[in-house]
């Protein structure tokens, strides 16, 4: 069984868990539950959960413990998309080919569904009684840091602030390190913590995540320019219309592609480092291939 | 020194803590910090923090431990006001006589400032290393439950859903139990947990909080009808214009006043119960007077 197939199995199991997870924590308002479920169910690559699951598998940890944490992370990622799509923010009518939450329901319902996913993600995470108190505190605190006012939301705000001006590439990295990087790095660090991965490998995986996060963002920026609406499922060249700073707009398409390649190489190096130094009795060494495949995925989708 | 003066001292100390608390957890985006500070600083009675502080004082607990928890709660209350005021929600231009956050800044900034206050409240709470891991988990989980998709947000959603129809008084109570009651009850339960208040007294205080919460909501509904714009600091009869179900609109003003009186009596009974049964060596019995004074406050403000 290839690593890809292995992760497909895990991801299918996770998908079932993810949709089921809502009922337990959101039953008191049927409209709210409906809007949360819609937002959570309309596709999504489950990229962040996949990182948690891959790290936990690598560290021979428990997937039953990983799923609720990966789900909480996906709830928070989903809330950020709902709020990001609002008319006052990016004003997107479609996401992954489906009407955005405020188009399907209403702006008020979208705001509240986002608030609910964000808040109750912490309930779900802290409710995992088979995790030690220490791990629950670290995981919840880490998640709030990654998503909060020195993390994702700060990145969002600086991104909006930057719309009216041309940024330097350093400023753009500052934004993306927070806006998308923080949750991606959290996914890996949560997996390492859950599976008690040895510190050296954890450090290398976290560096991998940093490069992966940047690669992911550059890839995302390029996708809007390179692909058309039908392929990306959202309106083409939207960022450009909004006057957003992107890697291709600041560097040009070719240098941005080059930059992406470099980040992928740097990420690959970290995985090689782990492969050459880890005590193989403590980890599932085959799962390292998943991290490499994840980089292929970013590459392939750029249309190489 | 009277209880009232005592609480004023504590609240002044708390106010200083509250404003200072932002810097540590929101420094990465100056606009975000500015909007969070503005929203947090424009008045507010600090009603929920006051409940935490009163409970902790009653249980002879540490105020240094109480302040961050009370602040996290106030951050979350403040986020709910910011989002509630948005054009897609209640569309309020003023709160407590000041421009609402989206009027002062922009809708996008208001959405993000709310998201940031909500998320980073959990960082602040979980960061309190002088609290045991068990208390941190209980406090954070309880806060997310009270504020989340089976708590405050569910109440908000049902409130919006109810706008187009006349509710029964039971449905209205269902809404308010979540929309405002949940955070008020959390304030008391957090205080009880922080100060290790004996279980009998905790149960009675929680019942007190339930009645106080309803009294607070009825009082709030009546305020909009009885007072004019200048006194309440927001536009008069706003709820009526929005077609909202309120206690006076469903019951009439006089019966709503009667209802308020009854809730205050039931709350008072719980405090009397504690007074007559508690081991006075374990608590600061004088602080019970604060809970009675809080009820007076609701009474006085109705204009009796």
TrEMBL record, chains A, B:
<dbReference type="InterPro" id="IPR008949">
    <property type="entry name" value="Isoprenoid_synthase_dom_sf"/>
</dbReference>
<dbReference type="InterPro" id="IPR000092">
    <property type="entry name" value="Polyprenyl_synt"/>
</dbReference>
<comment type="similarity">
    <text>Belongs to the FPP/GGPP synthase family.</text>
</comment>
<protein>
    <recommendedName>
        <fullName>Farnesyl diphosphate synthase</fullName>
        <ecNumber>2.5.1.10</ecNumber>
    </recommendedName>
</protein>
<dbReference type="GO" id="GO:0046872">
    <property type="term" value="F:metal ion binding"/>
</dbReference>
<dbReference type="GO" id="GO:0004337">
    <property type="term" value="F:(2E,6E)-farnesyl diphosphate synthase activity"/>
</dbReference>
<dbReference type="InterPro" id="IPR033749">
    <property type="entry name" value="Polyprenyl_synt_CS"/>
</dbReference>
<keyword id="KW-0414">Isoprene biosynthesis</keyword>
<keyword id="KW-0479">Metal-binding</keyword>
<dbReference type="InterPro" id="IPR053378">
    <property type="entry name" value="Prenyl_diphosphate_synthase"/>
</dbReference>
<keyword id="KW-0460">Magnesium</keyword>
<keyword id="KW-0808">Transferase</keyword>
<dbReference type="GO" id="GO:0005737">
    <property type="term" value="C:cytoplasm"/>
</dbReference>
<dbReference type="GO" id="GO:0016114">
    <property type="term" value="P:terpenoid biosynthetic process"/>
</dbReference>
<dbReference type="Pfam" id="PF00348">
    <property type="entry name" value="polyprenyl_synt"/>
</dbReference>
């Amino acid at each position: 069984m290839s690593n890809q197939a292995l992760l497909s199995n895990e991801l299918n199991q996770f998908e079932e868990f993810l949709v089921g997870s809502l009922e337990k924590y959101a039953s008191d308002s049927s409209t709210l539950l409906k809007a949360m479920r819609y937002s959570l169910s309309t596709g999504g690559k489950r990229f962040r959960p996949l990182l948690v699951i891959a790290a936990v598998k690598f560290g021979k940890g428990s997937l039953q413990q990983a799923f609720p944490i990966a789900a909480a992370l996906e709830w928070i990622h989903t809330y950020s998309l709902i709020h990001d799509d609002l008319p006052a923010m990016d004003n997107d009518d479609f996401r992954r080919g489906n009407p955005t939450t405020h188009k399907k329901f209403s702006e008020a319902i979208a705001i509240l569904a986002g608030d609910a996913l964000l808040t109750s993600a912490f309930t779900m995470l802290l409710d995992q009684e088979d995790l030690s108190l220490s791990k629950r505190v670290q995981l919840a605190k880490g998640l709030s840091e990654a998503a909060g006012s020195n993390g994702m939301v700060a990145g969002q705000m600086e991104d909006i602030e930057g719309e009216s001006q041309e940024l330097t590439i350093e400023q753009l990295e500052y934004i993306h390190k927070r806006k998308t990087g923080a949750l991606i790095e959290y996914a890996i660090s949560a997996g390492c913590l859950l599976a008690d991965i040895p510190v050296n490998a954890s450090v290398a995986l976290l560096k991998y995540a940093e490069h992966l996060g940047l690669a992911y963002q550059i890839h995302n920026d390029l996708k809007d320019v390179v692909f058309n609406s039908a392929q990306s499922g959202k309106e083409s060249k939207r960022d450009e219309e909004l006057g957003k700073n992107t890697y291709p707009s600041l560097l040009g398409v070719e240098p941005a592609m080059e930059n992406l390649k470099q980040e992928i190489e740097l990420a690959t190096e970290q995985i090689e480092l782990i492969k050459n130094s880890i005590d193989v009795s403590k980890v599932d060494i085959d799962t390292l291939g998943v991290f490499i495949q994840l980089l292929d995925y970013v590459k392939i989708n750029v249309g190489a």
